[in-house]
């Protein structure tokens, strides 16, 4: 349902957020500029080494890391989308009545199966037994 | 030019500019970071059109979810010694054909659509309307979405598991 | 003075609204800044008392000038960017963190409709949900850019922790939205109004959701017992190990503002915001600040009391306890509303 220009109150409230955003950005910018002006600068090679508890750093930190992080990010997206679907449902829940309850029940039940699946298959384990054996 | 138009042009510039960085940057990490601004710009455009629910969802899912996943993916699948991760121009011709085709489809759709000028009604509560449509007209897609999510989850879990054992 | 008021009356309604908005933004921003500096002091003092220490007590009476001294000190520190770092991302991350942190507080109402809120958005709750996901991004950037093993691990841990608990956080709100029938935070506050005073608040009616919120919010802002990203004993200082001077200050600011935000949001959504706890007393913004202060104290108290989780325990707890409980509670609420149980009918 496309419509004309959004209402005035819609625009005012969002422009208030825009104004707040500009104030925050301005504050950060002013601080950084002020800091740039008054900060001392005493260059030394030693200071620029990466901190590694006093040892000389070995190699780069940009290496492959545990795949579990990726798995949990995937899980998060799936359930995040679920939450986004649930929110409009929740808003109109009272108006619709029992039918909404039934629909929500089916929707959540299917996702409960998804959660049960990954749980059962061990994808929610941070340390999997097979990882340990490797 | 009124304020709304000015905001629109700024947002459009951010979106297109950062999208160009995404495509042209030599390092994949820069591309991924530039994508943040593209997504935020698009969310701003939605907001300007009165689609507040869509804008928030855009931020929530694309910036908070997909982009982090993308970053993790880039960091995970390659050894990033000295930013040695370069995107190269491969399959130039197929790329050009696909993008021209995509552009043609989009342009044609935009051209053919009968853009409703609207009746001046404010989009007071888009969320409520979306919810009512979910419970009525789009009931089946709503439930199908949960099955789609289930399948996506199982597929993702399967792939990750197979990779590890290999 | 009369000249000013005449001038004001002569302005168009749009211009008046604009200036009111500017004033609100300016006042709220400054209050937040003040609160941030006060919190850095209050946290150290309170923690010190809990641990039988004194805490900062030399600068000014009772050490209250400590935040100012800290601020000045940080301004006079030089810039250090480690040689292996990615300069652009390293520099951008703290700014992104601060902007994301401040933005989410814009929708919290301190009092009734009108003056006491920057913006009363139709999608208030969804906006909160969306902006809090921006914070994850800044931390990944900060952790990655420094090219340090500790920051990298801290950033990754933090990101995984934040989005895991963000899910529980979002799900804990669904029940409230059902009862209030709106995303607007002002509506959710007024939905808690009733003849029983504080028994009408959602922290009573939606008790399980409130508990889920408190836990998830603590994890979301990386505070003890969920301060794994900074786990001093193993990761030095986590994602901000390599940051110093002003950029460090910005990251600290982002953290404190995030804490202030989750306390303010919790106050509005679960503790009745600016509503009075007793039926006979008038509602007032003062109530908001009382409850808000209590929640802030609660977060500090937690830090002084609880030990830290282990990382696998943390992830298990988020996914195997909080998410299922929150989901189940959504169904229970839906069932109770459908059955028309008192308190869920309204």
Describe the model.
Chain A is mainly alpha-helical. Chain A has helices at residues 8-38, 68-91, 93-96, 98-120, 129-133. In chain A, 65% of the residues lie in helices and 0% in strands. The relative contact order of chain A is 0.04. Chain B folds into two domains: 1-88, Up-down Bundle (Four Helix Bundle (Hemerythrin (Met), subunit A)), CATH 1.20.120.1200; 124-166. Chain B contains six helices and no strands. Chain B has helices at 3-24, 28-48, 52-77, 92-112, 126-135, 139-165. The radius of gyration of chain B is 20 Å and the shape is globular. Chain C has one domain (84-339). At the A-C interface, helix 1, helix 2, helix 3 and helix 4 of A face helix 2, helix 4, helix 5, helix 6 and helix 11 of C.
Biggest interface:
A-C, 69 and 81 residues
Structural class of chain C: mainly alpha
Q: Distance between the terminal alpha carbons of chain C, to the nearest Å?
A: 48 Å
- CATH architecture group name of the largest domain in chain B: Up-down Bundle
Q: Oligomeric state of the chains?
A: heterotrimer
Which class of the largest domain in chain B in CATH terms? Answer: Mainly Alpha
Helical stretch tally of chain C: 13
Low-confidence stretches of chain B: none
Instruction: Count every helix of chain B, treating DSSP H or I runs of 4 or more residues as helices.
Output: 6
Distance between the termini of chain B: 60 Å
How many structural units, i.e. domains of chain C? 1
Estimated share of beta-strand residues of chain C: under 5%
Largest sheet of chain B: none
Report on the biggest sheet of chain C: none
β-strand number of chain B: 0
- The helix fraction of chain B, in percent, is over 70%
The pLDDT mean of chain C sits at: 82
CATH superfamily of the largest domain in chain B: NADH-ubiquinone/plastoquinone oxidoreductase chain 6, subunit NuoJ
- Total count of strands of chain C: 0
CATH topology of the largest domain in chain B: Four Helix Bundle (Hemerythrin (Met), subunit A)
Task: List the main descriptive attributes of the protein structure presented here.
heterotrimer; A: 134 residues; mainly alpha; Methane Monooxygenase Hydroxylase, Chain G, domain 1; flat; B: 166 residues; Four Helix Bundle (Hemerythrin (Met), subunit A); globular
